[in-house]
Amino acid sequence: MTIARPALDPELHELLSDMPLMSELSPDVLAHLRELPSAPVESLLAHRQADRRDVTVPAEDGTLIPLSVFSPANTDRTTAAPCVYWMHGGGMVMGDRFAQIDIPLEWLDEFGAVVVSVDYRLAPEATGTALVEDCYQGLLWIAGHATELGIDPTRIVVAGASAGGGLAAGVTLLARDRGTPAIAAQMLICPMLDHRNTSTSSRQYAGTPGVWTRQMNEFGWRSLLGGLSDDEVPQYVSPALATDLSGLPTTYVDTGSAEVFRDEDTDYATRIWAAGGQAELHVWAGGFHGFDALYPQAHISATARRTRTDWLARVLRDD
Predict the structure, then answer these.
(1) Is this prediction's pTM over 0.90?
(2) How far is CA 36 from CA 95, 217, 224, 291, in A?
(3) What gap in Å lies between CA 278 and CA 248, rounded to an integer?
(4) What is the rounded CA–CA span in Å between residue 198 and residue 162?
(5) pLDDT per residue over 226-268, tens digit each?
(6) How many domains does the chain contain in total?
(7) Which of 63, 105, 153, 194 lies at a CB distance of 3.0 to 4.6 Å from 240, suitable for a disulfide?
(8) Is residue 281 in a domain?
(9) Residue 1 domain flag
(10) Which distant-in-sequence residues (6+ apart) come within 8 Å of 78 by Cβ?
(11) What is the CATH number of the domain that holds 100?
(12) Separation CA 154–CA 140 (nearest Å)
């Protein structure tokens, strides 16, 4: 039986028709994808007045985690800047700190924000809490070096897309529960939040080629969990498991109506409201997973990206 699902935005449908798609991931396919070149960060910086600095931060087990710091060049350093801490996507199994970096670099342009991106370890080589703990150590480094970085420690925004959105949510829960550091806001872009993979939207996007399908999602979670049973999965790894979403910073969640993560993302925002928190939720009609990163020129993508920037402008307003 054919499962009914929301139609793609017509412009996105046309753009997607030329893209090779698959329905499943395997170790061999993953190895091939990891061999593809990284995002060309140099070309993104060529037309910007921005400085780049690379540092490493030790993880809990001593592994060195690379961070890249992008700062506005030739700016008045007497004024503390906001900071966007970026976690890349890639299903927990691929990508690097330059993946989707064009998204937060727009906020460097718009707000003079310092952008810090983390190269957390990937599954299946790293499993369990290793990835979210890597990201948390990066956040601690940012807070501890706020003066050196020229940032305002009260205006640190944690942000990420897809797997990075899930990690951003996990880092924010960790910071709340450990009492430090302060996070002004979290921006969760089509976040990967729920290892259970049982929602209606997950089932709608199963078995057919796509950008990110239910089967691909199962592969990513299976790689990350490393054999943990459902009752052993920490909420920081699969944030949808968190029963208490109170005390979180103001949150932005967006997703597409035509993607696996639609229902878990809308549920997360709903439960933040239920806990008395503040969240802004956008479900982009006809958007597939990662549409705005893959096709930023599409009208719906430009609208989604502008809407996020408008929200950040409100959050980062220095009154």
Answers:
(1) yes
(2) 10, 20, 21, 20
(3) 8
(4) 17
(5) 989 989 999 999 999 999 999 999 999 999 999 999 999 999 9
(6) 1
(7) 194
(8) yes
(9) no
(10) none
(11) 3.40.50.1820
(12) 13
